[in-house]
Design brief:
Elements lengths: L16 E8 L5 H8 L4 E8 L9 H16 L5 E4 L2 H5 L2 H13 L6 E3 H11 L4 E6 L5 H9 L3 E7 L12 H11 L6 E4 L10 H8 L3 E3 H13 L13 H5 L3
Parallel strand pairs: 1-2, 1-3, 3-4, 5-6, 5-7, 7-8
């Protein structure tokens, strides 16, 4: 994957794909990061919804909001829709993830997937069984519960307890420092959890420092989406900035 050339505007091309993202209303980083790192012929479409932070209610109470966001993004006819919020897609475990995707599938025939599912796929792809979880959240309890439910062992956890509007305030260098300080020898990998951070730019530096894979929410979603849509895209080129996970596409 590469971002060194202008993005294609040839929406009628059979090698052009469209990715729809449903992201929390508070998210300020997804569009820039996805457009910077996506293949040039993958069109990124984002729809905001009140699904996290103070709006992070139990899934049944968010059903109308999820339906509304799905209906709106579906009108742009993407090839894939991602419910892209790590916390809310993991918070009620795999059953909650299935409920979210079920709500979306009732509104559209377009394929749907969640951040939680793509993080699991990423960890499976790299054959990772144990992780250190690092996030800006008040705590990582729901993340740990989800990961353990899908067969992953959390050996250490760090939650920085930032307000949602400050999730993107830490620099990539600061995420590298936090992860380096909290790495554990019995962890196969570092999982940088959250879609509203600069963590994606810490992936490659951390892998060089720690000599182990690093998975981040935005990186995992981009990887999983590209893998699903690769038949519509031009041949991919390596993007070292996105770490070992992206190398698995080649």
């Amino acid at each position: 994957m590469t971002s060194d050339a202008p993005r294609s505007n040839s929406s009628g091309s059979d090698k052009n794909a469209h990715l729809g993202l449903i992201i929390p209303a508070v998210n300020r980083v997804c569009e820039e990061q996805f457009n910077r790192h996506a293949p040039r012929d993958l069109n990124i479409l984002a729809m905001r919804a009140r699904i996290a932070g103070k709006w992070g209610l139990p899934i049944p109470q968010m059903a109308d909001e999820i339906t509304r966001a799905t209906n709106y993004i579906a009108e742009s006819e993407p090839d894939l829709i991602v419910y892209h919020c790590t916390g809310s897609s993991m918070k009620e475990g795999p059953d909650g993830e299935r409920r979210i995707l079920g709500i979306m599938s009732e509104s559209t025939d377009i394929p749907v997937v969640s951040t939680s599912a793509l993080v699991k796929e990423a960890l499976d792809e790299l054959d990772l069984e144990s992780v250190v979880v690092i996030s800006p959240y008040p705590n990582n309890n729901q993340i740990i519960t989800y990961l353990e439910a899908v067969g992953k062992r959390v050996v250490h956890s760090v939650a920085l307890d930032l307000p949602p509007t400050a999730f993107d305030s830490l620099t990539a260098k600061q995420w590298v420092e936090v992860a380096t300080e909290n790495d554990r020898p019995d962890a196969d990998a570092i999982f940088l959890s959250c879609a509203n951070t600069t963590q994606i730019d810490a992936v490659a530096p951390l892998e060089r420092l720690l000599n182990k894979p690093v998975v981040n929410s935005n990186q995992a979603v981009l990887w999983g989406s590209v893998r699903r849509l690769s038949h519509k895209l031009d041949p991919l080129k390596p993007n070292p900035a996105l770490g070992r996970l992206m190398n698995s596409l080649f």
